[in-house]
Design brief:
Layout: H1 2-18, E1 34-40, E2 46-52, E3 69-74, E4 79-82, E5 85-87, E6 94-98, E7 107-113, E8 120-125, E9 132-142, E10 145-155, E11 163-178, E12 181-190, E13 193-194, E14 210-212, E15 220-227, E16 230-232, E17 238-240, E18 247-256, H2 258-273, E19 292-306
Parallel strand pairs: 1-19
Antiparallel strand pairs: 1-2, 2-6, 3-4, 3-7, 5-6, 7-8, 9-10, 10-15, 11-12, 11-14, 11-18, 13-15, 16-17, 18-19
């Protein structure tokens, strides 16, 4: 008798599972907002990308908004306005270009407006640069592969709470021909670099070498970083940098605004967790009032090391 009750219950469960009711729900459409992105450094043209926002499940490519009006002003009196969309030659992204040369101690305000969208605004500034004291280079073997290693020494100003990022570039004189003559022209490419010291760098989520001065406030500190001593040419072939005539390694020490640091940190966590259904949701930091995106800057100091001897000087000297 008890077996019959179990059988009836199991049949009832299957019948319920086979029932399906489709309910159409009209979700309210949300107003699209402007998404503005501009990460900028000192003494350089400011590139600003502007796109419409999308819903979470909306597919398709992002198309840049044309005929927008973007204005950047600084408390030092600089003002630049444009409504012309151009191309970033490095990323091939559609951007608005503004001739604002950012400087420390100046507060910058950006506004953007476009037909059919509410205007957006954001405010930020860039900190003072911190000089690199010394950069030394060597060679290490990691998991059987030869890599370059750098020790970067800096002296941190006391009591400021500086936020930092390290970037590395190779500069080589690339051979080419012009009118039948052999010529060499300088070209620069960012180098992949990483550190095994995740307690120092915020590198739990990516190879971004961002860090704070919490462990060495007001002191001189030396950071160790490994890098790939490679250069990828226009054909996609990879060559050891030192095979080129007159090669240089450029170290860039960035001091970051709080907006820049918060965006970089949260975006790295987002990339790390993207696609993992069990990961905690990550909200990427933004500071655009009335819309979405990031407006943030950095300052920078540089050091150049010559990797191979040659007849050409570094154009960065």
């Amino acid at each position: 008798m008890q077996l019959k009750r179990y059988t009836i219950g199991f049949v009832l469960l299957l019948s319920l599972a086979a029932c399906e009711t489709v309910v159409d729900i009209d979700l309210p459409e949300r107003e699209s907002k402007l998404t503005l992105n501009a990460l900028f450094g000192p003494d350089s043209i400011m590139n600003v990308s502007l796109y419409p926002s999308k819903e979470a499940l909306e597919s398709g490519n992002y198309l840049a908004i044309e005929n927008a009006t973007i204005t950047v002003s600084g408390t030092d009196g600089q003002v630049a306005t444009t409504n012309k969309l151009g191309i970033d030659v490095f990323t091939l992204e559609s951007v608005y270009k503004l001739a604002i040369k950012a400087k420390a101690g100046v507060v910058y305000t950006i506004t953007a407006s476009a037909e059919g969208y509410a205007p957006v605004v954001s405010v930020t500034s860039i900190p003072e640069p911190v000089d690199i004291v010394r950069v030394d280079t060597g060679t290490v073997f990691t998991d059987g592969y030869e890599e370059g290693q750098l020790s970067i020494t800096l002296t941190d100003p006391s009591g400021i709470g500086n936020l930092y990022e390290l970037k590395f570039y190779v500069l080589i004189y690339y051979p080419d021909t012009l009118d039948g003559k052999l010529i060499y022209y300088p070209t620069t490419q960012e180098v992949y670099a990483y550190s095994r010291n995740n307690d120092f760098f915020n590198s739990d989520y990516s190879s971004e070498l961002i860090f704070t001065d919490e462990l060495f406030d007001g002191k001189t500190y030396t950071a160790l970083v490994n890098y790939y001593n490679e250069f990828k040419d226009g054909g996609g072939d990879t060559t050891i940098v030192t095979n080129y005539l007159s090669s240089y390694l450029v170290t860039e020490l960035r001091t970051l605004s709080t907006d820049y640091f918060a965006f970089k940190s949260s975006y790295s966590r987002y990339q790390f967790s993207n696609g993992d259904p069990f990961a905690q949701p990550v909200q990427v930091y933004d500071n655009i009032d009335g819309g979405f995106g990031i407006f943030a800057g950095f300052n920078a100091s540089h050091d150049t090391l010559q990797l191979t001897q040659g007849i050409f000087p570094s154009p960065l000297d």
